[in-house]
Give the backbone structure.
Amino acid sequence: MIVLLLYFIFLIGVTVPCGLLIQKIMRIQALSLLDLFWLGIALITIMAGVWCLFLPLDFKFVIVLISSVILTIWVCQDMIKLQCSSAKQFISTITTKNLVWVVICTVLVLAAGTLSGYVLDNDSYYLQTIQWLDTHGLVPGIANWHLFLAQQSGFHILESAVNLEFLDLEFNDLGLFITLVMILWSILPSSIGESVFQKAYRNLLAITFPLLLLLGTAPSPDVPVILLSYYVIYKFLFGASEWTNVFMMSVLTAMACYFKITSVLLGIFPLLMIFRLKEDRWRSTLHFCGLGLLFGGLFMAKNIVASGYPLFPLTSVSLDVDWLVPEEMIRFYTDATVAQAYGISFTELNQVDGWQRFLLWIQQAGMEGLMNKGILLVVIASICGAFFYRHKPKIVTVLLVFVSFALIMALSSPQARFFLPFLIPATMVLLLSTLSMARNYSLGIARFAVISGVSILLLPSIIRLSTDNERMKNVPEFELGNLLFPSQRSRYSDAFAKANINNIQYNDPTGDDFFYGTYDVPLPAAQKEYLDYFKTYYQVSPEYRGDTPAEGFRAVKN
């Protein structure tokens, strides 16, 4: 925990100055410390997104980043003094009671950051994605080696850029750092005047704290996307109709889409704000389009390098490159992803009609089934709410965007966690619009949610009882040794056996029998069973394009 706290201080030291640099370039008069933080995250994301196309995200990138921060501090001295003065003034207004809550939140986040990653994707591709980026940058045709590596998020690129891997530290905790920042924003008094509804919406973000702690034990892009979505909608509901607010919304939206393309409907909110502007409409439109092109270009460049398909997993557009992933492998990936949402194989799923699919989805066991029922309830409530609150256009917009998003997910891959970025804001808006108690006691509810985060650390049996997935019952537990240093990044052993396929000598993980499992095993890692499956049933196997992993992979017919 102590080492992780020092790491969080480092993150503050690089993000805020980077945000100030953007503020100076854009000539923005005044921004909150939170907006500066997010602008800093955006700038580092852009830098890392370009860098990894050519070079690994190793110590050289960190040197360039720190050098840029030092230069920014020198160039923006007056702005930094002003921000330090504002921060000092705000801190002086924090009461002892609120300071206690700051400490509680910080300790819980630090404790969660020392745990091994709980999310299943952590053991299939999160860790390996970041390891590849740290060591080689974006590798051409990496999806030919392991299909899931084509999913690498822009957030994984950002994580790799700032995880200080060269110090041999077990850090992949940027998501938890962002969680801490946003939860403190949620529970601390605001420095601006707020309506009861606005304050309550901000407070109720803390309800997600236990969930964010659990997801944040792994470098999951779901964490920043959930938080970005909530904040964009906050700015839509309560922000001023001026270009500064629209610019911030555009930055946050574009970055959320780079992290997870399913966030694209967030773009509706800054677009509607642009239409409401009385001044600077063309300026804001230019910013919105420019940011979309910038982050969209990085998104497609990442996909092209990884798979040869700019819009992976869509195969309608492809490039004529030797590392293009065979279409039959992409179909396997999409079929498996869809079937996962229903808890059965794709072969079984193909044998049922639409109504039976719905019943399978709604009747799933464990936490997944509960969440699916909750999603359906909120969809119905949102449709009713959109009619009932039709005289409040902003509330109606939030609810209808969620319903539209839910429909898109239902027709593609209705995994419960995919709904969260729009489900959570819609739920809060419904609660606050309907229940006066939620508005009046929002801070108490938020504090209760923060305290309930302790259950993630001290009562892992609660999580075990909520799932019927044996692997998900392997819940990481906090130990005294975590007070100094974090646990290993994977819940499973990094043991492996040497194996060969074509011109590749690779590491076959032996820590657990998981078809997609790669864990925290040295590169290149894949299950022998996984590679043999594609060789047997698809007559396809990977080989190096050259002599080293950095030159990438191509698929060869057997």
The longest helix spans residues 281-307. Residues 510-557 form one domain.
